[in-house]
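Format notes (please read before filing issues)

Several people have asked whether sequences and structure tokens are stored in separate files. They are not. Every record keeps both together, in the order shown below: the sequence lines, then the token lines. Line labels are part of the format and must not be stripped during preprocessing.
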Amino acid sequence: MVLETRSRSVLRLPLRLRSVSAQDGEKINMKDWKRWLPGAIISIVFIAIFLYFVDFDEMVKAIQNANYMMLGIAFALGFVWIAIRAQVWRTLLRNRASFSAVFWTVGEGYFLNNFLPFRLGEIGRAFLLSRKSEMKFMEILPTIVIERVVDLGFTAVILLTSLPFVVGAEGAGRVGMIVGVIVLLGLILLYILARSNQWALDIFHKLSARWPVLQRVGGNFLESFFAGLSVLTDGWLFLRFIFWMALNYGLAVISYYFIIRAFFPETQFIWAMFGLGAAAFGNAIPALPGGVGTLEGAFGGALVLLTGNESVSFATALSVRLYNYINSTVIGGIGLAREGQTLSGVYQQLKNLRVSESAETGK
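Then the structure lines:
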């Protein structure tokens, strides 16, 4: 299988990967449990709140009476959305990987995020793409960081644009403005690091001189990370990236519009913008895999604010959940199958990678 034949050459995993003790594995599992529990509690709280307010008979009736042509259009656009998303990421990668490899890997990443904890899909797609291209894992990872930072900026802009049209949301506008400023400052910081990477590396080596292992491992990490950040210093490349990202979000808003209109015929386009912005921030809250509970809470809550109907809003939120699952499961599942991989198999490889890194650094 591809993932096995290129593992050491691409990621340079330590040879003792397979000899990590059971005790080390148990320590990692205990850490995972402690990290996983707060998100699970938050998800359960959101689900409980919705279950308390929802009238199930009305919700089922809303699902039965939904406009399935609208839903079909939205679900079809979801596959186009992933194709454009692949072009977004491929632009950041400077076209060093084929579109086919990036397309399937994007689907695999979202598929992993929907079912694995700690958003392992982000690490997973860097891990998987390193097996399909000549790029190294640590060259790919910074592009995902940049992509996610810009994601946050776009969702902040979308939410801020729609908020003035939502009654009583002035206070939330200030929160959105703060988020937007933080994102902008984050991009500026990344740009400064990209332009002054040697200076940052020298500072790191001076500060870590007392810890040789940290200096060696951290130095290798930072060198690869800064190499990936170099995309920020290429103005034309960055503009192309922003163009594809804007197109990607425009298509997402259209998809959300069709989903909402399937349940609320009076839907306005601004509703889709508000719902998408709320869903994106809700999905960023620690939760169970795929943002279970938080996605429904944020998106459904936004619709309740707009319509005052809890039951139909929750039915709409479930459709958004299905929309997210269908395109990622189909593309991601096919992608993994083409490579002879399974969801559990990739999860185990990622866990082994984490255990190996912990053993290497003596943690």
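For reference, the curators noted about this record: The chain is about 80% helix and 0% strand. The CA atoms of residues 67 and 265 lie 9 Å apart.
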